[in-house]
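sorry for the late reply, my laptop died twice this morning and i had to redo everyting from scratch. anyway the thing you sent over, i finally got around to it. pasting the sequence first so we're on the same page, its 153 residues, then the predicted structure underneath. double check i copied it right bc i was rushing
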Amino acid sequence: YIRGEKFKALIKEKGRNEPGQHANKEFRAALHWFFDLGAISKHEFDDIERLYALRNEIGHRLLHVVADDGTTPLALQDVLTTFAVYLKIVRWWIKEVEATTDPDFDQDRYENTDFDQAESTDTLFLREIIRKALFTQAELEELAKTAARAGLG
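ok and here's the structure:
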């Protein structure tokens, strides 16, 4: 693939890391792009930055994490936060990019679509994997209530 000049400029402008942050300039630039366009909040931006750094820590200490039951660098909330931010970006993308550029998606259809419930194939699969891998039935019911209150249905 070939990166466009605008993305190369964005990488130069927003891709640099601060001490203690991950060094993936392209990821950071893309994250800034979503933040600058209002797809994610500052809190979500900071959470993803933190989780990316945590991902690196786990990757470098994987044997230690696997071998030591007392080492739990990743919490359930971290998994759910990652999924929630990803789902929010997917829904934003469907609403702001796909629906607005689809010639068959007229104004009436756009205004009558509940984009807060939009899903993609990958979000459906990820949701099911999370559900089956991480929760008992009682936990799932409580999570569904919490998600409904948060508008993540």
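The radius of gyration is 18 Å.
thats about all i looked at so far, will dig more tmrw
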